[in-house]
Amino acid sequence: MIITIDGPAGAGKSTVAKKVAHTLGYEYLDTGALYRAIALYLRDKKVPPVESDEMRTALSNVDIHFEKERIYLDGRDVSAEIRTVEIETIVSSYAKLSMVREKLLEIQRKLGSLGNIVADGRDMGTVVFPEAILKIYLNAELKERAKRRWNDIKASGRDLSLEEVEVQLKKRDEEDSKRKHSPLRVPDGAFVIDSTDLTADQIAERVVELAENVIKSRGDCR
C-alpha cells in the first residue's frame, strides 16, 4: 500500500508524512531529501543545472539511500547538509531537468517497491506513484508556509528574514507549477487538505482515518 502526500514547500508534508508512517507502521519515503541530495551531489561535482553528457555520467554513478530516516550520499550522511539555504535555493534548477527526474523516478520506484510506504513530494501522486491507493494534496496560505519555514531556519541557527523566506517560497511555487516536467498539481482523486489553521497532529489524524477507511474497504491488512 502506498500513500502519497503532495503539495508546495512549507505545507507540512514531511512532518505529516512521518507521523502517518509511524502511526500505520509504514516506511517514510522523503522524496524532497532525494532531490536535495541530487542537487548537493551535482553541485559538488561542479555540474551546472543544464542537461549534458557530463550530467548523465554523474547521475549514473550516484548512490543514495536511507537508513533510519537519515539520507546517505555515496556513503556519507548528508541529512543536515541538504537542509542549508544554498541547497534550498538551487534544488529547483536541478529538479526541473528531465535527466534528474528520470534518475529520481528510478530511485523512488525502487524504494517504493520494498513495502508499505508514505511518500511526500510534488509529483508523488501524479507521476511517481499514480496507482497509490490514497492520495493527499496538502496546501496552506503562502504567509503561513513562510512562517513555518522561517521558524525551521531559525531553529537551525541560520539567519534569514521572514520576508526573504516568503520571496523564496513564492519563487519556488512558480518554478514548481510552471516547469515542463512533472509540474506541481493536484493528483487525480486526491483529498485536498488546507493546513493553514491545522496542526500537524490534526492533519495526520485525518490522513490516518482516510487510510484506515481505505484499508477496511479493501480488506487489506497492515
Overall description:
- This protein is of the alpha/beta class and 222 residues long.
- Helix content is 52%, strand content 15%.
- The chain has 9 helices and 8 strands.
- The strands form 2 sheets. The protein has a 5-stranded parallel beta sheet, with helices on both faces. It has a 3-stranded antiparallel beta sheet with strand order 3-4-5, with helices on one face.
- A hairpin with a 2-residue loop joins strand 3 (64-67) and strand 4 (70-73).
- Helix 1 crosses helix 9 (200-218), helix 2 packs across helix 4 and helix 7 packs across helix 8 (162-178).
- The termini are close together.
Give the termini distance in whole angstroms: 9 Å
Q: In which range does the helix fraction lie?
A: 40-55%
Backbone structural class: alpha/beta
Major sheet strand order: 2-6-1-7-8
Give, in order, the helices and strands: EHEHHEEEHHEHEHHEH
Q: How would you characterize the largest beta sheet?
A: 5 strands, parallel
Number of strands: 8
Shape: globular
What is the number of helices?
Answer: 9
**Quick check: average pLDDT?**
91
Pick out the low-confidence regions: none
Percent strand: 15-25%
Nearest-angstrom radius of gyration? 17 Å
Provide the fold topology.
Elements: E1 2-6, H1 13-24, E2 27-30, H2 31-44, H3 53-60, E3 64-67, E4 70-73, E5 76-77, H4 85-95, H5 98-112, E6 117-121, H6 124-128, E7 134-139, H7 142-155, H8 162-178, E8 191-194, H9 200-218
